[in-house]
Design goal:
This protein has 449 residues and is of the alpha+beta class. Helices cover 23% and strands 38% of the residues.
């Protein structure tokens, strides 16, 4: 049976069995992962995937089951299991499914070329990426990771409220990490890119050279003394500030009174230079989709506009609880998972400054290129932010020496409020993106702390 015929059969049989509302989430497609080391193919993983996740609501009680077996006997047993589990669940008035008709939209998020290109050619790209990194500088001794991954397939969401929508999507990813060594000291550098279209990936040589450059520039690094200074965040690490903010922007956390932003809509929480969006309809965005994983239309949502908190992210259930309109932000890892609130293309808008001008305008401070441990202790109820940091010291508007062995600390809200420069170098490399930006002052702790 086709995807739509299977979903129709399931919904009809669920309703006949006494289910008041039901949803069928279907997923089918292929995955590929490749790794190269020292020019040789080290690992390959290739798989086909097909499965269905079913949410059933009986007397306001919700159950979830899934299967990868589409035979009728198994599907009938799956339906019985769904009803049995629902009967054992606790009722909730918010156990409901969306009924909207998603807006039809042509989105360039599927590339048939991804699966048509041979594995041999993809391995060649990885070899080229590794070779470019190793040739960049004599101190680059070895690769740590050289990988390619892809997914391609169809997603469909169908429910008993009349919602019926499916779309094709693809994604491909290149990533490289290398190790540079000098005088017994080692540093790593990493670069990656994700795209829904194969031809939009940067050249492997470009990625390899950038990873090597990032490793080499930190060689010879040493700590600096504890002080309060401006901190400039490279885009590769600046995303961490957005990631730290993310959990506080989830509508389900707001509903649970777990978010430090819960009652702050309309308040100024950041610099006027800061606008943060989540845009599921960004043209060719790495995470763009016409609908979310419950079938609700995705949107271009302004979360923070010129420093003012405007909105939160909602899936259907959290929106019902908050009395809000769902924003199309339900996500699932696969058909095996229930939907939850998540992000699509989540980013800080670019500014008008050039990155080099921000450096020139910084008399004394730290340009951060690497953070470690920033994710430890993250909590939607707390704005605290602390991380080990490495980068380049800025003196009189120029890079003077590599720095490591220091810690930067503040709160996410204080950092956002103190942003006094935002560059124009925004590039969408993955799900969370940002341009270069500068925080006017942060506490920096050295070995004397």
């Amino acid at each position: 049976m086709s995807t739509k015929s299977v979903s129709k059969w399931l919904l009809e049989n669920l309703m006949s069995a006494g289910v008041q509302q039901a949803e069928v989430f279907m997923q089918e497609g292929s995955t590929l992962q490749l790794e190269v080391r020292e020019g040789k193919l080290e690992s390959i993983s290739q798989a086909q995937m097909a499965g269905v996740g079913i949410r059933s609501i009986v007397n306001q009680k919700l159950s979830f089951v899934h299967t990868s077996d589409f035979s009728k006997d198994v599907l009938k047993q799956t339906i019985k299991k769904a009803i049995s589990l629902a009967e054992q669940a606790s009722p909730s008035e918010f156990n409901k499914l969306p009924a909207e008709s998603p807006r039809k939209m042509v989105m360039e998020i599927f590339d048939p070329e991804i699966t048509s290109i041979s594995i041999k050619r993809k391995v060649e790209l990885l070899r080229e990426m590794e070779a470019a990194a190793l040739k960049h500088d004599p101190s680059v001794r070895r690769s740590e990771h050289v990988g390619y991954s892809e997914t391609s397939g169809t997603v469909g969401v169908f429910n008993t409220n009349g919602l019926s929508y499916s779309y094709d999507a693809s994604s491909c990813h290149l990533g490289v990490s290398v190790v540079a060594e000098r005088d017994g000291r080692m540093e790593t550098g990493y670069e990656e890119r994700t795209s829904c279209r194969f031809k939009r990936l940067p050249s492997p040589e470009e990625l390899g050279k950038e990873a090597a450059r990032r490793a080499v520039l930190l060689l010879g690094s040493r700590p600096v003394s504890s002080q309060k200074v401006p901190v400039v965040f490279d885009p590769q690490v600046g995303f961490t500030v957005l990631a730290a903010l993310a959990q506080a922007l989830r509508g389900d956390n707001v509903n649970r009174r777990m978010s430090y932003l819960g009652d702050r809509v309309g308040d100024k929480i950041a610099s006027e230079l800061v606008t943060i969006r989540d845009n599921g309809r960004l043209p060719q965005g790495p995470s763009s989709r016409p609908i979310d994983s419950e079938g609700v239309s995705t949107s271009d949502l302004v979360l923070v506009e010129k420093g003012v908190l405007k909105d939160f992210l909602y899936d259907y259930s959290s929106a019902l609880r908050a009395g809000k309109k769902p924003s199309g932000n339900a996500v699932r890892g696969s058909y095996r998972d229930l939907p939850q609130v998540g992000f699509s293309n989540y980013y800080m808008e670019k500014g008008s400054s050039k990155p080099q001008d921000i450096i020139k305008d910084t008399a004394n401070g730290l340009y951060v290129t690497k953070l470690a441990g920033w994710w430890l202790g993250l909590n939607p109820a707390s704005s605290d932010f602390s991380s080990a940091a490495s980068g380049l010291w800025i003196k009189n508007g120029e890079f003077s020496q590599p720095v490591s062995g220091v810690t930067i600390a503040s709160t996410v809200l204080d950092m956002l409020a103190a942003i006094d420069a935002v560059a124009d170098d925004l590039v969408f490399k993955g799900g969370i993106s940002c341009p270069t930006f500068r925080v006017k002052e942060m506490a920096l702790s050295g070995p004397d702390a």
